[in-house]
Amino acid sequence: TENIKWWQKAVVYQVYPRSFQDANGDGIGDLKGVEQHLDYIAKLGADVIWLNPVYTSPDEDNGYDISDYEDINAKFGNMADFDRLLQKAHDKHIKILMDLVVNHTSNQHQWFIESRKSKDNPKRDFYIWRDPVAGHEPNNWGSFFSGPAWQYDDATGQYYLHLFAEGQPDLNWVNPEVRQAVFDMMNFWVDKGIDGFRMDVISLISKPDGLPDGQVPTGGVYGNADKAVANGPHVHDYLKEMRDKVLNRADMMTVGEASGVDIQNAIQYANQDTSELNMVFQFEHMGLDNNPNPALGKWYDQKVSLTALKENLSKWQNKLAGKAWNSLYWDNHDQPRAVSRYGNDTPAYRVISAKMVATLLHFMQGTPYIYQGEEIGMTNAYNLKREDFDDIEIKNAFKYLIDKDNLLDEETMLRYVHAKGRDNARTPMQWNNSDNAGFTTGQPWLKLNDNYQTINVADALADPKSVFYYYQKLIQLRHDLPIMTTGKYQLLDPEDNDVYAYRRIGQGEQLLVINNFTDQVLTRNYSVPDDARLLIGNYDDDEGQTLRPYEAKVYQF
Ligand code: ISL
Ligand code: CA
């Protein structure tokens, strides 16, 4: 236990500033709004805030297209607001992780404005430019946001690579000047005293030599760039260089968002020797409920199979143990709401199943991440229609998959978006039952979920049995019980498709975690000693072998 690092027993609360709290009535959440709720986050007990991007940005991808890394998006405030937020958070012993988006910049970044001017511009090689091949794109890669990953630029007659939106040209990490510019920028934030970085798609920064075509899924149009690019030839060298030039300058926490990363890769990125990062966000469990038709990717509306989920999460628990560190998450600003995806968001079961889903995750080994609103059981936004969506991924999916490529009909797509779309997580935070849920006095930038009258922070704080207080207790337990950080994970009954039960095994002590994933009453017999104590549960009492709908309970012995 002496070797536990602070970030191994920390709990992170993710704030999406645009949707958290609007302090000036322009309809957009801002830094002052975050400051107003620091006490709320402290009350929950979180140790760290991960702040989604707050830098200057044309907001084509809500801040993930940065035009100035060393300034604050005017919509969110200014640098003085940021400095004050950091200071106030630190006063309350809350750390702040900044989002680092350096796979790409905005096409409005000064570097790109220069780069596109001419082939001999000193910034030309900051980005990835290629000649047309036989009159079209240099290779077959598709963008993460549908459509091609290349944009032709008239000025010089070449294409530039954008794995994400057209306005997000990929940086050329092979160029040492690019790396140095990124490290200098990071040091600007380190010098301010921030506590670490969440690194956006960091697994994609090193492109494969020769940029080979990706595999085209059956029925699809473009090659899979994710697979072709993830974990490229130099990514580990670049991260070691970053550690050397930036990360080792302070005791920081780092989490790499790592799409396309498997166990072996994760062990390299997040190795215990901390030569690179502390942990990664892996995506395997996020893909288990993808459409069986690979051309449709994530767009689907069927729930994940519990046995598949168990198999996957258990693999990560077991294989990283003692080698690397896990991050634990169900949702974030890119994913649907946890209770809607893994629990049951109907009124009868919303609260109980939100607590079950939380129990399942929070007793695992790793650093848990809670996305704003998850702690009050906010749900997907079924009231949003095609014209209400803001997210570029959703808009492009409609544009390409339906309007252009005719892969499915609009009604089915809307169902899929209600299940999986990113805007489910981005609707404004529901603070109370007043107009616009107390988020803004103006016109909200994105429509609210229309259930805010019944699901909101004010009600949660007034109800001792709310999802909020359950999360508060989970966080407290993680702080108090070293076994939650160090205990060895052991899955029980891998074939049981209704109950997810596992043990955490320590020196002479154990936890038994039992989660009923169904709305049925079930009977299960796990061996528990007579003197076992019920540590936490989502019902008021314990009926032993009888598991009520979505019941979750943890025994300690
Ligand atoms: O959102 C996704 C699935 O719905 C992912 O494919 C996502 O685009 C990918 O995980 C990368 O996400 C990150 O980088 C993107 C940005 O849009 C996301 O918000 C960010 O979390 C590009 O910067
Ligand atoms: Ca505002």
TrEMBL record:
GO terms for molecular function: alpha-amylase activity. Gene3D superfamilies: Glycosidases (3.20.20.80), Golgi alpha-mannosidase II (2.60.40.1180), Oligo-1,6-glucosidase, Domain 2 (3.90.400.10). The keyword tRNA processing does not apply. InterPro entries: GH (IPR017853), GH13_cat_dom (IPR006047), Glyco_hydro_b (IPR013780), O16G_dom_2 (IPR045857). Coiled coil: none annotated. It is found in: Cytoplasm. GO terms for cellular component: cytoplasm. Keywords: Cytoplasm, Glycosidase, Hydrolase. GO terms for biological process: oligosaccharide catabolic process. It comes from the Bacteria. Residues 14-426 form the Glycosyl hydrolase family 13 catalytic domain. It holds the Pfam family Alpha-amylase. SMART domains: Aamy (SM00642). The keyword Hydrolase applies. Belongs to the glycosyl hydrolase 13 family. This is Glycosidase.
